[in-house]
Design goal:
Radius of gyration: 39 Å
Structural class: alpha+beta
Length: 480
Amino acid sequence: MTSLPVPRQPSQSSDIAGSGTPSPEITPVFALKELVSRLRREQNKIQDLLGSLGFALRSFNNLKQFLELTPLIASRVTDADGGALILFRPDGQMRLERLHCQDNTQCQDIRKALEAATREITSAAPTTPGQSLTLSNNLTAALDHQVSLSLGTDVQLFGTTILTKSTERGRLYVFSRDPDYEWTETRQKLVRLVADQTAVAIANDELTVELRKKERLDRELEIGAEIQLQLLPRQCPNITGIEVAARTQPASRVGGDYYDFIPANYDQIRAKKGAVYESDRWSVAIGDVMGKGVPAGLIMTMLRGMLRAEVLNKHSPARILQHLNHVMYTDLENSNRFVTLFYSEYDTQTQTLYYSNAAHNPPLLWQAETQTIQRLDTLGMLIGLDVDTQYHDAQVQLHPGDTLIYYTDGFTDAANQNGDRFDEENLKNAFQWACQHCETPQAILDHLFNQVQQFIGVSNRAEDDMTLIVMQIKKPDATV
């Protein structure tokens, strides 16, 4: 067995020599024990350093704080002279993020050299995203070469990739000026381990940023949904001679469906909270903005304000739709969105419904006397599609027991797992049954919603907003 050299301790040797005691013999067994002890100390040091890095990964909320440790830990676990972290930006730029040197006197020169290397590579990099992705391997090799030239040929250099989701996010370099320094497999693995921890920190930071954005967006959507809910009728009004029920079910937090009950008298609109409306003419409207989410909700809010202003002018339903189309045409054309709207006015004295339709789903009228269903429709294009389109007025005489439903296409377009739609025929059949078996508008409304839910699947959610108004003429003995 070849003996291993062990450093002598001069203070002990001199004491021993001075006392006249002979020096103990250094045996191979003693040298092996010292080597094992030194390796154990090195192993404990590496474990402590990597443990510190793992603790920082779990504890630091600031990515920059973690990145400060990356070249420091990488150089210390490998007994190297220093380390450098270069990160790649999404726009193709490279930046020296962090630098650590054991010898601070040389650190400034190394920093200048590495910054010059990154500028050299960046200036030669392609400008378009497609080229950057295609030539990323060539750029990495060029960066390694440039960094090696910048540090000098006498430097022992090792670099490894920082990879997140199969995307190269940077390079971690560790270097030593010791001519006898070797990049063993163990040292390379340690540097890769530090690089992997750095990649996890970068990915975690990006996830945290995305989560915060999502939380802010969710809060904004909650506020939007609250505002929209406040703009829709909080409860159905008490209208002389009729009973009303209504519900809207948005597919997302903010929907594009709209419905409203508007008394024709301005003083009634300004009535105090809790007051009972007494008006002989009521406007009942239902509409649908193409699309879902916040953009549709914003247009719905604009439509509501304009319609309420038009009602005060006491024009006919067709004229009101005409004015809305003229006013909203430019805004809707620019947004590439359109609105369907059915507008009606009910006269409580004559029990007559006056209406006009802008390409909305025609309401269904169940006539109690004949037990038949009639569609209420007039010619007219979507609001915002054609500025010169014409709308037409129509009217229908209602009788006690008659029931009318206003609905949006979320009902007829609701699809099951086979792709079949609920369609208008199924809605008519469900409505016919409900009018014959349900005693109140609320019961009819609940039945129709339940029928659609059973059709698409109890555990499934409708893909479009669903809104329904049920209006029933009271029978003489039910009139208060």
